[in-house]
Design a protein that fits this description.
Number of strands: 33
Distance between the termini: 72 Å
Helix content: 25-40%
Largest sheet: 6 strands, mixed
CATH superfamily of one domain: Valyl/Leucyl/Isoleucyl-tRNA synthetase, editing domain
Length: about 950
């Protein structure tokens, strides 16, 4: 603290300072906790019995689940938390019953990696991080209902995560009813003969293992052998979204390979259409909706069978351009396609083109080598637009079903087993990727869609494919079908009908969305409530055995391998605890105690965040997932919210696909099974921007501490050497993090809250500037001085009516601030409060009590601590939190006069001060009589007068 500031505080001992702010903030935070100020009441049972509560509008406001990082918060993290807090406070003051709380998404890889490095149990480090984060969040003055907070690692919470998994495991999707149903109903259909088994045998004749296999083809949670992303360097399998574009793990930057493993999956694809259709009823940013639509990737087309080999095998493709079948001159299988190993011959066919063989002596050698090469790439990398196309001929030909032509079959990494059927018919003349591949492998191209750009129909002369939906079909007549002369739409319809009649295809819908890989080879995650009998059949644990908790293990890490060793297999930490893995249990199947082996994978970190909104509603219920009346009250459908859900959900746009899609899926399953009334978890979604910071780097490109960089004459220096500066993320590794504790200590938490909300629109990223924080600090100091004498500490307001101009300033502020807070426009709300406060300062003299009290209420959602203190000093004994937000008097909101612009030929000739309620006729008369307008017209005629009262008159001379 400077000597000048010290002297000022001695002269004004009751000035609002950082020290005073710290005292005020600590006292009011203690008060709120003791009084339960933010506790939101739940309905007690039947909603009809809670008429008073139901009559009060509700608001359920949520932030995206934070992960408790050991490094704590920097000032970028609280942006969304402060915003939802401001919004929640305003909603309370406008008469809403507000549910606002915050828990912790505490399972996951960071804590496990810390445990591997230090030997510290993940729970110990995670709980320590949570304690630190709770203290930081408390200091921010967030109005959370702390009774409802929890962490995903709490046994009382993950008990219900496991319970939901079992609901999904014990369900199947009935396509006719278009909803999930209990698996017992499917068993009843098989048992009664209503539904036939795959081999038509009676259900009663199937063994227990055979029945389990049949049901596994229907269950919404199922285990299967599937291609997965295997990261030997991490010792675990990764979802596609956890693999970078260059085929490496997002965490650790290890190589990722394709491997086939038995894994748990969620049949999210059953809900593809509902996940798409229900987006229309959600109040989400269009950009997020578009990302989900693209991720689900619904496309209409046809399934077509191409005969291959001598054993009656067929390669099935899905295409959206079945009208181009006559142009298919080769085929491509994904390297992992199950037919590859079966159809590859012992030797190359006579006359095989040298470029097709990859320089290998036999097809088997070529295919094996290429498969190994493809396994080293991620799906993202394989789909990238590479300049050089790679692949290899399998040594066999397939038959084009419409032309009878023999077309070579290749494998290439740009075709993925996870999308469509894992096989494509290649029409190089009309697909850019196929065109590039055909050029690389000297394959023929046949034009079957007549170009409209004058290039002619000889595809061999083209520089690129011709792709269009608006042209005529050509060169497409043969056998029993003719498409020549038809448009694309008509040709697609005709060929689809013909394929179906021939039994070699049918119209169908395909999706980009794949089933959700739900297994992780880790320790720090929810154990699966699944055990296996001696035959390997999976059995669900009964609910009475939940929660299934993690055992103690000596080594927290999955077994890792040489990062480039693609042939290894995962070994999980849980598998090493034989006493936990091998158990004797009575599952209530009528067989008594039996020996079982537990599932040794754990659930992914997404599991706990798929349903946490429901636990906030009823966090201490040990008997049910959630009380139906409570869920219906907070999340049930209502006018404007056809699917129900949380009223406002705020978080980063980076969760557009994964978390949001997974949570929607779980919500729909629970809805179908009757556990909830809301079929969507989040009705309104808002994506806040990011607080950025300058990153400074030395001559080596190494980040240096931002706080130690000096600016001199437009350049930046660290320890005397010049440094570069770029705007980027804020974080510990970039050495530019500023903690909220630092700002609170120097200026007070209310100043921090105001600055973060005043930096710009909430949904826009903005740079942090510690030097600018003082502006909001001075706002609070001026506000304080307008109510309290800095020398005596006495309240200075007077019980008198304010002047007319002050009333107008007050009510305009009330009107504008109220609208801005409701619309999440916090920066403009602060600007209006500042304008009103500056008006009072400029007018001078004691402030009228009605004005002072309303000003305190206006700023209360944004700066709650100082508002509570001033409210108490103004003589009130109750908290400001539940006071009514001021209501503007319309008579004072409307300006006494407004400025009307008068234009002639688009140029301003006069400005008139007029009443805002003036009529068009009166305004036209005034404008035409204005001396400046008369002079500009010079006695000439008038062709037209356009009046837009009260702001504009436009005169068009004759």
């Amino acid at each position: 603290m400077s000597e000048t500031n010290s002297a000022a505080e001695v002269a004004a001992p009751h000035r609002y300072t950082a020290a005073m702010a710290a005292d005020i903030e600590a006292r009011w935070q203690d008060f709120w906790d003791a009084e339960g100020t933010y506790e939101a009441p739940n309905p007690s049972g039947d909603l009809a019995g809670d008429a008073a509560l139901v009559a009060k509008p509700k608001k359920f406001i949520m932030d995206m689940f934070p992960y408790p990082s050991g490094s704590g918060l920097h000032v970028g993290h609280p942006l969304g938390y402060i915003a939802t807090d401001v919004y929640a406070r305003h909603q309370r003051m406008t008469g809403h019953n507000v549910l606002h709380t915050l828990g912790f998404d505490a399972f996951g890889l960071p804590a496990e990696q810390h445990a591997v490095a230090t030997g510290t149990h993940p729970r110990v480090s995670t709980e320590a991080a949570m304690d630190n984060m709770k203290q930081q969040l408390r200091r921010l003055g967030l109005g959370h209902d702390k009774r409802r907070s929890f962490a995903t690692i709490d046994p009382d919470y993950h008990k219900w995560t496991q319970w939901i998994f079992l609901q999904i495991f014990n369900s199947w999707y009935d396509k006719e009813a278009n909803r999930a149903r209990p698996i017992e109903e499917l068993v009843a259909q098989f048992d009664s003969g209503q539904r036939t088994t795959p081999d038509a045998r009676p259900w009663s004749e199937l063994s227990a293992g055979e029945r389990a296999d049949v049901l596994g083809e229907y269950r919404l949670a199922y285990a299967s052998e599937a291609p997965v992303n295997w990261a030997p360097g991490l010792g675990t399998v990764l979802a596609n979204e956890e693999v970078t574009a260059d085929g490496r793990s997002e965490r650790g930057n290890f190589p990722v390979f394709k491997a086939k493993l038995r894994q748990w999956n969620m049949r999210i694809t059953a809900y593809s259409d509902r996940l798409l259709d229900d987006l229309d009823g959600l109040d989400w940013p269009e950009a997020i909706k578009l990302q989900q639509r693209n991720w689900i990737g619904r496309s209409e087309g046809a399934r077509v069978d191409f005969p291959v080999g001598a054993d009656g095998d067929r390669i099935t493709v899905f295409t959206t351009r079945q009208d181009t079948l006559f142009g298919a001159t080769y085929m491509v299988l994904a390297p992992e396609h199950e037919l590859v190993a079966k159809i590859v011959p012992a030797a190359w066919p006579e006359g095989t083109h040298e470029v097709w063989t990859g320089g290998h002596a036999t097809p088997a050698e070529a295919v094996d080598a290429y498969r190994a090469q493809a396994a080293a790439k991620s799906d993202v990398e394989r789909q990238a637009e590479a300049k050089d196309k790679t692949g290899v001929f399998t040594g066999v030909y397939a038959t084009n079903p419409v032309s009878g032509e023999q077309v070579p079959v290749f494998i290439a990494d740009y075709v993925l087993m996870g999308y469509g059927t894992g096989a494509i018919m290649a029409v190089p003349a009309h697909d850019s990727r196929d065109f590039a591949f055909a050029r690389a492998f000297e394959l023929p191209m046949r034009c079957v869609v007549e170009p409209t750009d004058g290039r002619g129909t000889d595809a061999a002369e083209w520089d690129d494919a011709f792709v269009t939906y608006d042209a005529k079909i050509v060169n497409s007549t043969g056998g029993q079908i003719a498409l020549d002369g038809l448009g694309v739409v008509d040709a697609k319809a005709k060929i689809t009908e013909w394929l179906s009649a021939q039994g070699i295809g049918e119209g169908t819908v395909n999706y980009r969305l794949r089933d959700w890989l739900f297994s992780r080879q880790r320790y720090w995650g929810e154990p699966f409530p699944i055990v296996y009998d001696e035959n390997g059949t999976a059995h669900a644990l009964p609910a009475s055995m939940l929660p299934l908790e993690l055992p103690e293990v000596e080594d927290y890490s999955p077994r890792t391998f040489e990062p480039n060793d693609a042939d290894t297999k995962p070994e999980t930490p849980l598998s090493r605890n034989e006493d936990w893995v091998n158990v004797t249990l009575d599952l209530g199947l009528g067989e008594g105690p039996q020996r079982y082996r537990r599932e040794t994978n754990t659930m992914p970190n997404w599991a706990g965040s798929c349903w946490y909104e429901l636990r906030y509603l009823d966090p201490h219920n040990s008997e049910k997932l959630v009380d139906p009346a409570i869920e219906r009250y907070w999340m049930g459908p209502r006018e404007g919210m056809p699917h129900g859900g949380v009223d406002l959900y705020v978080g980063g746009a980076e969760h557009a696909v994964l978390h949001l899609l997974y949570a929607r899926f779980w919500s729909k399953v629970l809805f179908d099974l009757g556990h909830v009334s809301s079929s969507e978890p989040f009705h309104k979604l808002y994506n806040q921007g990011m607080i950025q910071a300058f990153v400074y780097r030395d001559s080596r490109g190494i980040a240096v501490p931002a706080a130690e960089v000096e600016e001199r004459e437009g350049a930046y220096y660290f320890q005397g050497e010049k440094a570069s500066r770029v705007l980027g993320k804020m974080g510990k590794s970039l050495k530019n993090a500023v903690t909220p504790d630092e700002i609170s200590a120097e200026y007070g938490t209310d100043t921090l809250r105001l600055y973060e909300m005043a930096m710009g629109p909430l949904d826009v990223s903005r740079p942090w500037d510690t030097r600018a924080v003082v502006g909001q600090y001075r706002l609070l100091q001026r506000l304080w001085r307008n109510v309290v004498d800095e020398t005596t500490g006495e309240v200075t307001v007077v019980d008198s009516e304010p002047a007319e101009d002050t009333l107008r300033a007050l009510h305009k502020a009330i009107d504008g601030v109220g609208q801005d807070l409701a619309g999440l426009r916090f920066n403009t709300a602060i600007a209006k409060i500042t304008e009103l406060n500056n008006h009072l300062t400029k007018v001078g003299g004691p402030v009228s009590r009605p004005v002072a009290e309303r000003l305190v209420l206006l700023i209360a959602p944004l700066a709650p601590h100082v508002a509570e203190e001033l409210w108490r000093k103004l003589g009130h004994t109750d908290s400001v939190v539940h006071q009514d937000f001021p209501v503007a008097d319309p008579a004072y909101v409307v300006d006494e006069t407004v400025t009307c612009v008068v234009q002639i030929k688009g140029k301003v000739k006069a400005r008139l001060e007029i009443s805002p309620s003036i009529s068009d006729e009166e305004l036209e008369k005034l404008a035409l009589g204005d001396p400046a307008v008369v002079a500009a017209l010079g006695g000439g005629g008038i062709r037209k007068v356009i009046v837009r009262a009260p702001k504009l008159v436009n005169i068009v001379p004759a």
